[in-house]
Amino acid sequence: xxxxxxxxxxxxxxxxxxxxxxxxxxxxxxxxxxxxxxxxxxxxxxxxxxxxxxxxxxxxxxxxxxxxxxxxxxxxxxxxxxxxxxxxxxxxxxxxxxxxxxxxxxxxxxxxxxxxxxxxxxxxxxxxxxxxxxxxxxxxxxxxxxxxxxxxxxxxxxxxxxxxxxxxxxxxxxxxxxxxxxxxxxxxxxxxxxxxxxxxxxxxxxxxxxxxxxxxxxxxxx
Length: 222
Description:
The chain has 222 residues and is mostly helical. The protein has a domain at 117-222: Leucine-rich Repeat Variant (Alpha Horseshoe), CATH 1.25.10.10. Helices cover 71% and strands 0% of the residues. The chain has helices at residues 2-20, 29-39, 45-58, 61-71, 77-90, 101-107, 113-126, 128-131, 135-145, 149-162, 168-174, 179-188, 195-204, 210-220. The protein is elongated, with a radius of gyration of 20 Å.
């Protein structure tokens, strides 16, 4: 069974490596686009995930946008996650990076929490573009109400990265969540100011978790 599985997986690994190397040699942009278009519809999720990285790195902007839109809705969670992770790298290549925001917002409700985590990260990296298209409210909903602490933690971190004042109430509430979320929430207070922020940081100095205390101490230092 083990040998059979290894033999089945090896071609996928080899094909993924070939796709990942696209554009590193002398291939033209058209050749890269053609190869990536084929790879992005491959039956192997590993190959499809490699295709996203290749097209974002070396393909044309049009092909990159096309493959990304397909990948962010892929049936495989690993492919969706990879697409979300690459969104911040793709954004500068597009004439209108706003096109990335809506698909990422949809992935905040993904069945796989690691996809949610990657989508939240990407939204945080997209900055004002994401804020202008509803990211703060969507991330606040996840940070304040998702059942999985990893999703809440990622959403709080993204709210801190965005620094939108509308997200501050959610970050403050997250300072009383479970420890992994509290750690992230205290760090997420960095771009904010005001009496509420200072009060939350002072309370965090007495937290039972040393990392929470350390983060609060660092932020309170002049």
